[in-house]
């Protein structure tokens, strides 16, 4: 499986990063989720579209801005 990296807006504290991590861990086919508050990025093993990632974060105040190559 490929490792994906995404930019996330709206995270301001470690609690925010934990919410993003927990949300992404609920996605089928996604594992090894790591979230960096300092870099405002998340990485994970698996495949998910921008729409799927944002739908997962719909109830939070965070948004996936882009998939980083």
UniProtKB/TrEMBL annotation:
Q: Which GO terms describe its molecular function?
A: metal ion binding
Gene3D superfamilies found in the cross-reference section: 3.30.70.100
- Pfam families given in the database record: HMA
Residue limits of the HMA domain? 2-65
- Residue ranges that the Swiss-Prot or TrEMBL entry lists as coiled coil: none
**What InterPro entries would the database entry show?**
HMA_dom, HMA_dom_sf
Which protein are we looking at? HMA domain-containing protein
What organism does this protein naturally occur in? Liquorilactobacillus nagelii
